[in-house]
Design brief:
The chain is mainly alpha-helical. It has six helices and two strands; from the N terminus they run H-H-E-H-H-H-E-H. The chain starts with a helix and ends in a 6-residue tail after the last helix.
Length: 133
């Protein structure tokens, strides 16, 4: 079968998109394993840790924090509701989302040479007041 010019360009675009996705996923997996961060978390200087601040094991981060929620969100109708609840839960107590709870993880600000800080605590230390004041 001979492909026309448009079909071959579309195939090349699909392959480029797929290889880019694989590359970004590979970088994120490496950073997640080595630094408890993804590309976005690295840029924001935040890090995934256990709820008590201890390092979280790679399998805990990958399986419970990322893959389990991805599978649940793929369920038609129910997935949309779960995603909305997950994203909305960040505003609850402790700044933890639903996908943090089964994995017992939390996102901490990470500045080398300084102690780990929760999101709300960091805002207080920078401004001297709670963000709700």
């Amino acid at each position: 079968m001979i492909l026309s010019g448009n079909e071959s360009r579309i195939g090349a675009m699909i392959m480029n998109s797929f290889s880019s996705w694989i590359g970004v996923a590979g970088i994120n997996l490496y950073l997640l394993q080595s630094r408890s961060q993804t590309i976005g978390k690295w840029a924001l200087k935040i890090q995934i840790r256990r709820g008590d601040g201890a390092p979280a094991h790679f399998s805990r981060k990958l399986l419970l924090r990322y893959l389990l929620p991805a599978l649940l969100v793929a369920i038609p109708y129910l997935g949309s509701l779960l995603l909305t609840l997950d994203l909305g839960s960040i505003f609850g107590s402790g700044n933890r989302t639903l996908h943090d709870r089964p994995a017992d993880t939390q996102v901490f600000y990470f500045l080398p040479g300084k102690p780990l800080e929760y999101g709300r605590d960091r805002h207080q230390s920078e401004t001297g007041r709670d963000r709700h004041d």
